[in-house]
Amino acid sequence: xxxxxxxxxxxxxxxxxxxxxxxxxxxxxxxxxxxxxxxxxxxxxxxxxxxxxxxxxxxxxxxxxxxxxxxxxxxxxxxxxxxxxxxxxxxxxxxxxxxxxxxxxxxxxxx
Length: 111
Fold this sequence. Notes:
This protein is mainly alpha-helical. It has five helices and three strands. Helix content is 67%, strand content 11%. The longest helix is centred in the C-terminal third of the chain and has 23 residues, at 67-89. The radius of gyration is 18 Å and the shape is elongated.
């Protein structure tokens, strides 16, 4: 995706959790707020996130993923899934069956 692991992780939080405060994002990523500010600044320069005012409290700023940020993350995920599927396709049938069974068991845990 062309992002450092910390930036990709922060972007992932924003895409899947939605807009959050800088403090909440820092907590989710287990970093200090100044570190998160630098990460977000880099993502913002690339047009992947933006800062917006909270709808109910204009003093509070939220960070949210832009459409470009969401697209980049989804494309990266699609590439990883495709590589994984290609790898699975090269496994023996018995191993593929084991993986299918394990996937079914994990899916059942989501309950």
